[in-house]
Amino acid sequence: MTALMGTALQDVMRKAECVLLDFDGPICDIFAGLPAPQVAASLRTFLAARGVEIPPAVEVLDDPLAVFRFSGQLGAEVSRATLDALTELEVEATETARPTPGAAELIYESKRLGKAVAVVSNNSSAAVTAYLQRVGLAVAIDYVSARVDPDPDLMKPHPHLVRRALEWLNGNPPATVLVGDSETDMEVCQVTGVVAIGYANRPGKVSRLEAAGADYVVTNMADLL
């Protein structure tokens, strides 16, 4: 990030009235102790035990959310059951989740400056809440807009979760930033009009986040302070 871009980002952060944060990545690594590929495999086993034929393309998925998206094709009953199974695994994963350096400081500083702070996540509301309570951050979060609906199509990049947070916070999209580490986070910003800040926490992500529409990209959450 150039000095000029850094100055512009600092100005955006100062003026922001609402700070929205994705959960897995910007706040913590939820699957640090219970690896995502293991959770995805557990969901496939869960579906297979219910007679679902797992396509080869789904068999190789490492992302539990992608397996959940697949379940949306299998009818409301199966999708709801998969949602419950995934939620249970995510809550378990929060017990060994690893905090993202700089995330807590950003949240507390934003609150000190009078900004509204919300979590907007495709992970379950139960898991987000469990983690925030475990690490003592719940008191600094104004709202959690996370997965509760059995319809996978309502996850980001669908605007549902972001719009729910904006409505709750009475947020003005141009005065709101969303910090996320995935292309879907950047894409939902284009739809909702909030400022897209990409968090590139792995090699190769800078270009992918920029291509997905990021207004700014950082490699360290502390850069947002």
Features:
single chain, 225 residues, alpha/beta, Rossmann fold, six-stranded parallel sheet, two-stranded antiparallel ribbon, 10 helices, globular
Detailed description of the structure:
- This protein has 225 residues and is of the alpha/beta class.
- It folds into two domains: 3-29 and 97-224, HAD superfamily/HAD-like (Rossmann fold, 3-Layer(aba) Sandwich), CATH 3.40.50.1000; 36-94.
- It has ten helices and eight strands.
- It has helices spanning 3-15, 36-48, 56-59, 64-71, 76-94, 103-112, 125-135, 160-169, 183-192, 205-211, and strands spanning 18-21, 28-29, 98-99, 116-124, 143-147, 176-180, 195-199, 216-218.
- It has a six-stranded parallel beta sheet with strand order 5-4-1-6-7-8, sandwiched between helices.
- Strand 4, helix 7 (125-135) and strand 5 form a beta-alpha-beta unit.
- Helix 4 (64-71) runs antiparallel to helix 5.
- The radius of gyration is 17 Å and the shape is globular.
- The mean pLDDT is 96.
Number of helical stretches of at least 4 residues: 10
- Estimated share of beta-strand residues: 15-25%
N-to-C CA distance = 15 Å
Quaternary structure type? single chain
The radius of gyration is: 17 Å
- In CATH, the homologous superfamily of the largest domain goes by the name HAD superfamily/HAD-like
**Secondary-structure-derived class:** alpha/beta
Mean pLDDT: 96
Cα shape: globular
Fraction in helix? 40-55%
**Which H/E pattern describes the elements?**
HEEHHHHEHEHEHEHEHE
Q: Within the largest sheet, what's the order of strands? A: 5-4-1-6-7-8
Q: Summarize the biggest pleated sheet.
A: 6 strands, parallel
Tell how many strands the DSSP assignment holds: 8
Unreliable stretches: none
CATH topology of the largest domain: Rossmann fold
- Give the tally of structural domains: 2
Under CATH at level 1, the class of the largest domain stands as Alpha Beta
Named CATH architecture of the largest domain: 3-Layer(aba) Sandwich
Pfam families: Hydrolase (PF00702)
GO molecular function: phosphoglycolate phosphatase activity
InterPro entries: HAD-like_hydrolase_sf (IPR050155), HAD-like_sf (IPR036412), HAD_sf (IPR023214)
GO biological process, one term: DNA repair
